[in-house]
Amino acid sequence: xxxxxxxxxxxxxxxxxxxxxxxxxxxxxxxxxxxxxxxxxxxxxxxxxxxxxxxxxxxxxxxxxxxxxxxxxxxxxxxxxxxxxxxxxxxxxxxxxxxxxxxxxxxxxxxxxxxxxxxxxxxxxxxxxxxxxxxxxxxxxxxxxxxxxxxxxxxxxxxxxxxxxxxxxxxxxxxxxxxxxxxxxxxxxxxxxxxxxxxxxxxxxxxxxxxxxxxxxxxxxxxxxxxxxxxxxxxxxxxxxxxxxxxxxxxxxxxxxxxxxxxxxxxxxxxxxxxxxxxxxxxxxxxxxxxxxxxxxxxxxxxxxxxxxxxxxxxxxxxx
Length: 320
Description:
- The chain is α/β, with parallel strands linked by helices and about 325 residues long.
- It has 2 domains: about 1-15 and about 25-120 and about 245-315, Bordetella uptake gene, domain 1 (D-Maltodextrin-Binding Protein, domain 2), CATH 3.40.190.150; about 120-220, D-Maltodextrin-Binding Protein, domain 2, CATH 3.40.190.10.
- It has 11 helices and 11 strands.
- The chain has a 6-stranded mixed sheet, sandwiched between helices. A 5-stranded mixed sheet has the order 7-6-8-5-9, sandwiched between helices.
- The radius of gyration is 20 Å and the shape is globular.
- The two termini are about 25 Å apart.
């Protein structure tokens, strides 16, 4: 964490930035995922609100591919002038450095963390026919009949894969991992009975839960979701190591002006804290609003990278 630590020290003594002339040209938000997904929608909402605030066009550029590596590499090699921003998920900085033997950039030295925007927790969901209505019942069945319960993920090293393997490790059970080729395939596989379990986003699972097509056994996070207050967390059930979260965050190339970093953070934070936007666009969609400072983001990145590194080692996951 050599460079990220230097960012932390730099911002601890950071002064006012209002007099700094930035931006001086259009700003790009490079999204590491295809159009239409939750992270893309949030990026476009931010761009729409930041354009008048900054007096320059703020445009979204989708650069999907290679598990976020395409977009991340493009931003790492862009000018460090604060006008190219990476919007990505925890996969880029918490998982990929442990999953890939070599990356075309250094995840620590080539970037300046700006802010974690939001956090998302996933549910452990099951097919209704599975004779388990709680995590403890699932564990009992898995111990009695090892290797007979399977769970879907969307690839080796994905959040569901790491969470599933951590659950196996900590509960001392045998679940069979069934990787699918995309996040959109895992929940339908459970509903169809192809697999019995998967991990899925809270908000996106709500229609299927209400219709009885799936059932929820546990959720990630330190506290229960306000959308599903009846579903207990892995932490309260005694398995805090089973982390199901994902997050969306903003990064700049290393060496970007600290004034630009501070301005981006402050203005993004203000948008996320707007009462109507916060409730309707974030909380109601299952997001936990974070809007962390660059200093706090550095600390969280270090902790997240360490915990996900342990999960990758336990899972034996390798880049596909």
